[in-house]
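Reviewers asked in the last cycle whether our approach scales beyond single polypeptides. To address this, we selected a multi-component target totalling 583 residues and predicted its structure end to end. The input consisted of the following lines:
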Amino acid sequence: MPGRHAFQMIAVTLAAMCLSSCTHTNGKNAQTASQTKAAPPAAPWWEHALIYEVYPRSLQDSNGDGVGDLNGIIQRLDYLQHLGVNAIWLTPIYPSPLVDFGYDISNYEAIDPVYGSMNDFDHLIAAGKAHHIRVIMDMVMNHTSDKSPWFLESRSSRNNPKRDWYIWRDGKGPGIPPNNWMSLFGHSAWTYDAKTKQWYYHRFYSAQPDLNWRNPEVQKAMFDACRFWLDRGVAGFRLDAIPELFEDPQFRDAKVLPGKNVYGDPREDQSYVSNLPEVHDVMRKLRKLVDSYPGNRVLIGETYLPTIQDQLLWYGKNNDELQLPMDMQVGMINKLDANLFRTKINDAETQLNGNMPLFVFDNHDNIRSWDRYGDGKHNAAIARIIATILLTTRSTALMYYGEEIGMVTTPPKTKAQVQDPIGKLGWPKEKGRDGERTPMQWDSGKDAGFSTAAKTWLPIPPSYKTVNVQVESGQPDSLLNWYSKLIDLRKNNPALHDGQNIMVDNSDPNVLSYVRKNPGQGPSVLVAMNFTAQPQTVSYALQPQGIQGTHATALLADGGVASDVDLSHVVLPPFGVFVGQVQ
Ligand code: NOJ
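The resulting structure, written as structure tokens, was:
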């Protein structure tokens, strides 16, 4: 398995440290969904949605320049609709110097010409509507590009009215930054500006200066940008790096922890730079803003958080913050450990006050789940297990393009090939995120059907000849068809759609099993997954859960599991999966 990326490290470090912002469960949190939340008359669309992350540079190139674009996405809406996608989240498409491929925005109310025009965007919204697919924008509120006119003004003089839009401080002495804070992308989080003789703070790359969220003008400018896109019909926002909005007002040095990170920097406690309580005031205001629009617009958070209790805080004390803070605890377990999955999934079911968790395994920042969970020998079977967890648990599902066909992480071979700034800075230990951003593999033809260009922005992985949509569509047993069947089941089976998620066979270290209990009179569904390379036998007693029945009939089974099983003796072959209706 390749080394971890910075983003997995954030999750792991946070979880291990349980920062000072950790809170503790109260009795209420321990209750279950059905005890705490009366079924609403009609669930908002996002509750049961399948959200598909599109990295616009890599989905489909429509104009032959080797980079994906908005018209390319439009061309692929039929495929997405057929797969059962309800919404796409587009990573940033705003004008940007592209130092961090769009996460360095220079204009929040326009489209970068690389991806097309505002007309193309409007066309995408309309075409999406015709395909029943909503469009969610990425909103980067923590920082801008250093080429943003706001920052150019801010750095022009200490007296400029926008000086205080960013975080400027004096150094501790000549050449010494204001404190010891390290950037998540390596080295000091402060960059010196020779002209005005002060340092500016950047949580990420030096070309991504942090905005000062204690300045009300910043909030106004950002909320105006949100309104601009809501007015154009977007279904909501994925809020980038949202726990990072505020920093300690006293700028105290971080506590240094043992060890070094991949950049050779000291590891630091994050409590002065991440997850400060003031961010929740902003979230409440933002929620009010999106709620003032019709159609259940949604706020999704990029929330790498240390504990489930921190996760709960992001829904808001009165459910008045984010509807879907991402749950990074399940998807980033990074090993096929039945006990850990059981605990984390159950935490999400029982400790979020009945709110919908948002599970996610793959995204543009992390090594693909195929490689993180695969053992090198049974990757295809393990990928089915991951898909099954994502799509049969009680959660909104977030997937990433190419996950459904089993695209593999293909990192650059040499430093010269690296595009991603963190790979440039961290090479060779940290190769960056190019490997999980390679072009979508549509078919076995030129450029995998992604482009007609002589050279695509990232190389097409060699796997494309056999791992692609066209080939897999024709193979009944392909991963693509497995995803497709799961997505159908999730939508149409009442127990999988609405049922409580109850863990069973609780002390089994080898098999993860749960039931989705039918909320009405109909059958419940048993999901069982063998996490090992050896056959396993399980005996289920579901009566204590109020579920009658001695048999289960397969709705979907893999790895040679029988289609009708006696619940007292279920044999699961290596990495076998069984999803069955209890009779
Ligand atoms: C999180 C985004 O997902 C990542 O790609 C980006 O580099 C950082 N935030 C900085 O915006």
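The domain at 500-582 is CATH 2.60.40.1180 (Immunoglobulin-like). We regard this as preliminary and will revisit it once experimental data from Aim 1 are available.
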